[in-house]
Amino acid sequence: MINFIPEEKVQEILERVSIEQIVSRYVSLKQQGKNLVAICPFHSEDTPSFNVNPTKGLFYCFGCGAGGNVFTFIMKAENYTFVEAAEFLASQAGILLEDNKLIKKVDKEKNSLIEINSLAQKFFNYMLIDSTKGEKALEYLKKRGVSNEIIAEFGLGYSLDEWDSLSKFMTKRKVSVSDLEKVGLISPRQGNASGYYDRFRGRIIFPIYNLNGLVIGFGGRIIDDSIKGPKYLNSPETKIFQKSKLLYGMNLARDEIRRKDLVILVEGYMDVIATHQNGVKNTVASLGTAFTAEQAKILKRYTDNVVIAYDADEAGQEASLRGLSVLNENGCKVNILTLPEKSDPDDYIRKYGAEGFMDCVKNKAIPLIEYKLKIASQKNRLDTIEGKKKVLDFIINDLTKVNSLVEREYYIRLISNKIGVTEQVIAAEMGKHSRSLQNIGTNRDKKVIVRNNSKEKYLMGNSAQVKVERFLVRYVMENPQNIEWFQENVGVHSLQYSKSKLLIRDLIKYVEDSGGSDKFCFKNFLITLPEDLQGYLSEIMTVDTETYSINDCVYIIKNNWYKLQVENLKKEISAAEESEQKDIVDSLVSNLVEFQRDWKQIKS
Length: 604
Ligand SMILES: [Zn+2]
What we know:
By secondary structure, the protein is of the alpha+beta class. The protein folds into 4 domains: 2-93, Zinc finger, CHC2-typedomain (DNA Primase, Chain A, Alpha-Beta Complex), CATH 3.90.580.10; 102-239, DNA primase, catalytic core, N-terminal domain (DNA primase DNAg catalytic core, N-terminal domain); 245-364, 3-Layer(aba) Sandwich (Dna Topoisomerase Vi A Subunit, Chain: A, domain 2); 422-604, no CATH class. The protein is built from 26 helices and 16 strands. The protein is globular and about 90 Å long. The structure holds zinc ion (ZN). Residues 40, 42-43, 50, 61, 63-64, 66 line the site of zinc ion (ZN).
């Protein structure tokens, strides 16, 4: 999306629009030190924790962690996409976006394709509701409990079982054949035959809307399952329809998703329709393709909490796992719901109502690791060593990513009980796994020796680590030419706080992509980040003021990193000793000696 607004326009908007003016339309701001404060518009509170720093053009809320610049603010406050926010802010500042010819041309073509779709939607809808030819389709929907209101709300329709009824209707209204093909409503005849035929024939039609409620594509389902051909058929990818970037039902569900702070992800059109009809309106569906990062980002605009309620069959399980990892990587909290009796959400909610369905969402949805354990245990023989190993391999990476020690302990016990391997061995495997990941980055560090005398000033505890990491983030943001220095002397891997890690990793990539640090623009970088990182970065840039000596920072970070490695190694060694794995003990001990020697070097 960002590509549609040229960078210099974004720059111009940021220079001309004042954040305090925009924000003050939503809340009343009071001066407090160098910042302005207010009651946060994004969460409910009694004492103001929402800060605006006009000089830097940033806002940050201590209560809910929301933060960013004026783009972030307006996107959050109005549910705008980036382009919509740019249009709105540009109009506020009297900046013309229209004089960008690219936008104009693309928009004009897109608009005409959307108009064709909207005309087709009316045609399909008429055939379902008002034509005798659509009786069978209407009967099918009624039998599945779909009401007239829902048919209207979702704009459902029926495509006649004829080769050219839509084409005829459209050409009478002066729509060109080439536009109909561009929007995917007709296909050229196969082989030597000339001419076209309607893509959707004899199908219930589910119009697919974008967030603004405009028809961008269609899905069609056959009524009679005995008829050959695919059960579901979608519009092909077009200029306005990209399956990987949209979610079915999002236009109707987004307010409810935000209100409930939860989205339920289902598999099919009918699942969305049945749940909405029964009053569960925070459901959306991905359209039969693998769940994508773009889709995760759409969801993240409204909530971090996702329940996946796909079908209980094998394909549904695999889709759940794929969706899970994508959502997880994008910072969502994901639980998986497997409905009883092998039902899909459509069947289940029609049988047990909203209450029964929501009861399952609340009580039967389980987190990632439990779900993976369940699946892997079904697929492998747990009475064989090979089977136990496979289960553990399948989970270990996710397990090492769990930050909370309490959760970790819970899972380790759960796995231990399930597969019959001691908790110590699982912990040792985890250590081995995370070290094999960290070692990728250590060679570079071994060359670096930092000497300084003032290091004793600082506590070596976690609070120093956090402060120093935050300072380093600020240091490279304010002086992006230091990124190379950072990579040489510190390295992303030796940071311990995951948000600092992600932030610097994104910064490095951003600078590489935009052709060097001299072209770096902080404000433009900020809006490319996911919401939680925008918040974290805005917090650092608006709140932090302390400065530290860079040598001290490097020392503290390196020292803590070695300390952690050595502690982990010692734990692994004692676990390996307990389970009498002599080979492993030997190799761990030689690792330990090496680490301790390197550690000593930075201390001297
Ligand atoms: Zn807040």
